[in-house]
Design goal:
single chain
């Protein structure tokens, strides 16, 4: 499992840096973006900030909640270093809840 997490992180980082070359989209005002992001569910956040923005979304059942927490912290750091807005504390909580729930 340790190797899976390392490989997963490497795949995500390569996708993140490859997508930096793309032109940035025009951002909404801070207030509009904040209001919109607060209305998103954990699944919406996963799709919007992970799958659509940087890389193919992994199957959420592949990792345990503690592992997802590590991945989310790593992704926050990478988003910051790439100049992308980081998830708010509330968004991170909703995303972790979504990734951790059993269907």
């Amino acid at each position: 499992m340790k190797y899976s997490l390392i490989i997963f992180s490497l795949l995500i980082s390569s996708s993140l840096y490859a997508s930096e070359a793309a032109e940035p989209a025009v951002a909404a005002t801070d207030t509009e973006a904040e209001a919109e992001s607060e209305a998103l569910t954990g699944e919406d956040i996963f799709t919007t900030y992970c799958a659509d923005a940087c890389h193919q979304a992994p199957d959420r059942s592949r990792l345990k909640p503690k592992q997802w927490r590590v991945v989310l912290n790593t992704m926050q750091t990478r988003m910051k270093s790439a100049g992308r807005p980081q998830l708010t504390e509330d968004q991170t909580k909703r995303l972790l809840e979504y990734l951790s729930k059993d269907d």
